[in-house]
Amino acid sequence: MIPNWLLQRAHITPNRIALHDETEAVSFVELHERAVKRARQLAYLGVKKGDVVAVLMKNSVHMVEIIHAIQYIGAIALLQNVRLSVEEVRWQLEHSGARFVVCDESFPDERAVTWNEFVHMNERDGQWQTMYNFEDVATIMYTSGTTGKPKGVMQTYGNHWWSAIGSALNLGLREDDCWLAAVPFFHVSGLSILMRSVIYGIRVYIMSSFDAKRVNELIAQRNITIMSAVSTMVQQMVKELKQPYPSSFRCMLVGGGPVPAPLLQRCDRLNIPVYQTYGMTETASQVATLSPEARHKHGSAGKPLFHMNIRIEKDGEIMHANEAGEIVVKGPSVMKGYWRNEQATAAVLKDGWLYTGDIGYIDEEGFLYVLDRRSDLIISGGENVYPAEIESVLLQHEVVKEAGVVGVADETWGQVPYAFVVLNDEHITEEQLKQFCMNKLAKYKVPKRIQVVDHLPRNAANKLMRHELKKWVKQ
Question: Which residue numbers delimit the AMP-binding enzyme C-terminal domain (predicted)?
């Protein structure tokens, strides 16, 4: 058991600023008072301990109030992606058994309550959770569904606590830290910022949506020290950057897939402190992060956080240094399992080890390198081909803005790479791009086709949805 984080924080540092946005600053004690009011309104609706309450909102101070209010009651917050279709949202509501859904705008479901309706609700007294049990489920997030039906990841209070502690031990912690939240709170990289804020006692600056130009302004003007991002966000920020970031900006935490080497090199030249990290919804965010003293290990996700163990397995055998296999992780931030899905849980959780489905290797110094998703691996003529490697090469070309690679069936080789690229308002032929790849890749890695498109399919976490690319190939 551990004290309710916001309640404790409001007691220890009541007047310290918890949240900023474009219109207001909210102290920890004010956030606590608002959370209690929202909890009383949820209680009036009939929400009880153990109930699932869905939150379908964009980043806002209101959303943070609701999340803490749900935890005060002892209910479970189901954080839903606002970009989902009505059908997808309803599927999650049905599968989770959610009692209510609090949303920004009207939603066609009898369980839906808009924010404007909610704030005028009556209130009812309740028994608030002054202590949290590490084993209790705090939040559910359905996986982004890059393959198959989404699975509801059960994240416990213990998961969030150890994720925060491990991150602090890795990145360090300062009283004046301010974490810029430009990633959505319905994604684990965003939610983890909120959990860390109340555990650490640091400020969070909330953006309702990502805007590269505005992010650069905030870092320059608002004493931002840390930001979570994915590589596509960083690419846009670098493109918009007019002057160096202040020295007080100490950490650009970049996850969501391998960071292309050209982007890392460009950030190095601009003195942007990029920390490549590896994590997932099932581990409540970070598993490994590249520490400052190991910046020379370009392309590595670093070493495990203090509380985590990582090993590489293939066909039941533990791999030696520099041998690729499935990344397997263990530690107290590993999820409890998948909500109402024992079969899927048993498939990935074995003796406390989480089988991630990601391919990677650990070098002789213990640094983790993430190559790709196992399901994305292309086997061409018996050779393993990693889409991320080809994408990294394509992104080195000055006219290529984005790249996505998938495997397609081939009568001769079994599979061959097929690439999609978004260009920077310039023209280049397919053959020119292929020749560029030929100079940097083995012949079997060069895409059989390179197709120019207006955009690439991405989910709310900005992760490339390769299963959608495969549909594009068939079209």
Answer: 389-463
In this structure, the answer to whether residues 110 and 29 fall within a common structural domain is yes
DSSP secondary-structure letter at 280? E
Angle, vertex CA 173, rays to CA 257 and CA 29, nearest 5:
105
SS (H, E, C) 22-37: CCCEEEHHHHHHHHHH
Quick check: 371 pLDDT over 60? yes
Does residue 389 share a domain with residue 248? no
H-run or E-run covering 229: strand 226-230
364 and 387 in a single domain? The answer is no
Same domain, 352 and 406: no
The confidence band for 146, taking pLDDT boundaries of 50, 70 and 90, is: very low
Share of the chain above pLDDT 70, in %: 97
Closest CA to 467 of 384, 423, 408: 408
Q: How far apart are CA 325 and CA 311, in angstroms?
A: 9
Q: Which residues span the domain enclosing 364? A: 2-368
pTM passes above 0.85: no
197: CATH = 3.40.50.12780
Strands 414-423 and 349-350: unpaired
Task: Measure CA 457 to chain center.
Answer: 17
pLDDT band at 292 (very low <50, low <70, confident <90, very high): low
| Same domain as 118, residue 66 | yes
Q: Whole-angstrom Cα distance, residue 432 to residue 436?
A: 6
- Give a yes or no: residue 8 inside a domain: yes
State mean pLDDT over 91-98.
95
What pLDDT score was predicted for residue 257?
67
pLDDT score recorded for residue 282: 95
Q: Which residues pair with 355 in a beta bridge?
A: 328
Residue 387: pLDDT over 70: yes
Domain boundary among 368, 400, 431: 368
Tokens 């190559």: give the residue: 371
Domain closes at, from 315, 337, 368: 368
Q: Is it the case that residue 74 has pLDDT exceeding 70?
A: yes
397 and 300 in a common domain:
no
Contact 225, 177 (CB under 8 A): yes
Q: What is the distance between the alpha carbons of residues 235 and 267, in angstroms, rounded to a whole number?
A: 9
Report whether 302 contacts 290 (CB < 8 A). yes
Contact 307, 300 (CB under 8 A): no
